[in-house]
Design brief:
Largest sheet: 4 strands, mixed
CATH architecture: 3-Layer(aba) Sandwich
CATH superfamily: VSR Endonuclease
Number of domains: 1
Strand content: 5-15%
Shape: globular
Low-confidence stretches: none
């Protein structure tokens, strides 16, 4: 049972950012520090990738573990209320992600997904990004 009124829940959900999230900012700082330049949220590409390298035809998506269902991650929890609604929401998110990646590949773009839990110190984020961009 939701303890919040529909108006309060709607307001709370509207505060969840789609762009410029903390994990995305971490990834952008790393990329910039490596000397690469990029564009953000290109709406002309399928899925509006978070980070776009036009000259390299490469894109990076920074996915939240909860919303995009990072398999095996401790951040991939499921709400206890309205489970059918949430399962359908998560399925739709995953289907949309797969469709965007497939469309980008069909257009000749390479894609990389960085999960929220990977955008932290102590991960091999720098190496992964450098390898992806230099390949």
């Amino acid at each position: 049972m939701d303890n919040l009124s529909p108006e309060k829940r709607s307001w709370q959900m509207s505060r969840i950012r789609q762009a410029h999230t903390a994990p995305e900012l971490v990834v952008r700082r790393v990329i910039f520090a490596l000397g690469y330049r990029f564009r953000l949220h290109d709406r002309n590409l399928p899925g509006s990738p978070d980070i776009v390298f036009r000259s390299r035809r490469k894109v990076i998506f920074v996915h939240g573990c909860f919303w995009h269902r990072h398999v095996g991650c401790r951040l991939t929890t499921s709400p206890k209320t309205r489970q059918e609604f949430w399962q359908e929401k998560f399925r739709a998110n995953q289907a949309r992600d797969q469709k965007a990646v497939a469309a980008l590949r069909a257009l000749g773009w390479e894609t990389m997904i960085i999960w929220q839990c990977e955008a932290k110190p102590g991960t091999n984020l720098v190496v992964r990004i450098r390898d992806f961009l230099d390949a």
